[in-house]
Design a protein that fits this description.
By secondary structure, the chain is α/β, with parallel strands linked by helices. The protein has helices at residues 6-9, 25-29, 31-41, 60-64, 101-106, 141-155, 175-189, 194-203, 223-230, 274-297, 303-308, 310-324, 332-346, 355-358, 362-381, 386-398, 424-433, 438-446, 449-452, 462-476, 478-485, and strands at residues 16-21, 47-52, 69-77, 80-88, 91-96, 115-118, 165-168, 205-206, 208-212, 215-217, 238-240, 245-249, 267-270, 403-405, 408-413, 416-420. It has 21 helices and 16 strands. The N and C termini lie far apart (56 Å).
Length: 486
């Protein structure tokens, strides 16, 4: 069977405009996929060079496949389960920053280069004061980027039209702002000249971005079946969901030169991404955190089962539409449309998202994802949001266990053990308090300011409501407690 290659994809030679730090699944199924479509639609004429920013790993598969690969998006589209396959031809070359350092740095001198994309994980955008300019390459991602930009600045004698646009997608707040801060700190550490610092500030653009797509990676369970179906061999297949969103917050408008939205792609250009992040965290992530623990104790194991469970599904939708959306600031129809898309994503038959994996660190997740809606609803409506309040009692029920073993608090569901994973201090707290009376347990949890940053038991009616819900869960079981109250 032939391996996917350029002749098979019909790759066209385009000017290299994008340097991408990271060869992982997400960028290939998200950024490279979008640029591929934009190229096809004629709104962006540019190729990508992928650089491997870390020492371990190999680019051999990319070289064997001439940088061509398949993205397979699987999910609900227009109410039907569909599979959308696309051969990606937007990647022109790859380079290893360690074993192919000279080749990688030559791209800094490329006239057509305009964009830097990165996904180096949340730990990638950090200032390392032990990094050095003379390293080939510097240790950190900001170090590699700073030296790359300095090489470009020198190659073009500081020409202001040769600055680059940075588009980091690392999942940290204000990723572009923080990346620029690291670059400027390295300029100071390395004593780089004022002219270069001015070039960074005036010629280069650092965008902060928000990205959203579930990418499930290489389909090891069905890869050979796909090869047979497609008629070619591909060891770089990436699977994911059809839904995508890329919000780009930019100090200068780049929508004219990087017009991915003109290709019908879900890209939003804005001067303030925070409302979109709030929407994602409070609706998508907040929904997860509010229902998964109750759903697990109802006997479900994955999100899809939860959506097929009428009781849990109704609880989830009422939480989002009745208690979360009323507290948000974007136009209501935008919020409703996003919430409906979230529901569709949760129903994706191709994604087996385990509830226990979502349950990791649920205390801090509830604070970040649910508590803002909880407090805003109380403030605005002058009453308790009953679903979000119940989710606190569900959290307490889930975090019930008497033993910590192998760095997990051991819970029990229907006579079988499950692992509760959180910080050790959190697990020790629940181990020591979960067997108290419902009222004492609720008081201990709600008043724990280390968890919530404030004493939730002081809010009118919260302690009594959580106590009552906890008593129902203990006496009736989770499902019957939900049936009674919702």
């Amino acid at each position: 069977m032939e391996t996917i290659n350029r002749s098979m994809t019909g790759k066209k030679e385009r000017p290299i405009k994008v340097l991408q730090f990271g060869e992982g699944n997400f960028l290939r199924a998200f950024v490279d996929y979008m640029i591929d479509i934009a190229n096809e639609q004629g709104v962006f004429d540019g190729d990508i060079v992928i650089v491997k920013p870390i020492e371990f790993g190999s680019l051999d598969r990319f070289k064997q496949q001439e940088c061509q690969y398949t993205v397979s998006l699987r999910g609900i589209v227009d109410g039907e389960a569909k599979v959308l396959n696309r051969k990606i031809s937007s990647v022109a070359d790859v380079a290893d920053t360690y074993t192919e350092y000279d080749k990688y740095m030559e791209y800094a001198k490329l006239d057509t280069l305009r964009y830097i994309v990165s996904n180096t994980t949340e730990a990638g955008i950090v200032f390392d004061d032990t990094d050095k300019l003379e390293y080939q390459p510097p240790k950190s991602f900001p170090g590699k980027l700073t030296k790359f930009l300095y090489e470009r600045y020198q190659a073009f004698d500081g020409a202001m039209d040769k600055g680059l646009v940075m588009l980091p997608v690392e999942l940290i707040d204000d990723n572009g702002i923080n990346l620029k801060k690291c670059v400027l700190q390295l300029c100071e550490l390395w004593k780089l000249e004022e002219g270069f610092v001015n070039w960074i500030n005036e010629a280069c653009i650092f965008c902060s971005t928000l990205v959203d797509r579930i990418v499930t990676g290489y389909p090891r369970d069905i890869d050979k079946d796909l090869w047979e179906e497609w008629g070619y061999h591909d060891e770089l297949i990436v699977t994911g969901e059809p839904f995508a969103l890329w919000v780009i917050e930019c100090p200068k408008d780049i929508s004219g030169e990087f017009p991915l939205d003109k290709a019908g792609l879900p890209v939003i250009y804005t001067d303030n991404q925070k409302p979109y992040k709030q929407r994602k965290v409070r609706i998508l992530n907040g929904a997860h955190t509010s229902f998964v623990l109750a759903s697990f104790l109802c006997g479900n194991d994955i999100v899809l089962e939860s959506m097929e469970d009428e009781l849990v599904y109704r609880f989830m939708r009422e939480t989002i539409f009745d208690e979360v959306i009323p507290t948000l600031t974007l136009p209501k129809q935008d919020l409703v449309d996003f919430a409906e898309a979230v529901t569709t994503r949760f129903k994706n038959p191709y994604v087996k998202h385990a509830l226990l994996s979502i349950s990791l660190n649920s205390v801090s997740k509830w604070k970040a994802r649910c508590m803002p809606s909880f407090l805003a609803y109380i403030e605005e409506q002058k009453t308790l949001p009953k679903h979000l309040t119940f989710s606190l009692a569900a959290l307490m029920a889930f975090y019930t266990g008497d033993e910590i073993r192998d760095k997990a608090l051991i819970g029990m569901r229907d006579g079988k053990e499950y692992n509760i994973m959180d910080d050790m201090s959190v697990m020790e707290f629940f181990r020591d308090n979960c067997r108290k009376s419902s009222a004492e347990y609720a008081k201990a949890v709600l008043s724990n300011t280390d968890f919530w940053g404030q004493d939730l038991s002081e809010l009118a009616g919260v302690l009594d409501a959580v106590t009552a819900y906890t008593e129902d869960i203990r006496s009736l079981g989770m499902r019957k407690a939900m049936e009674k109250n919702f």
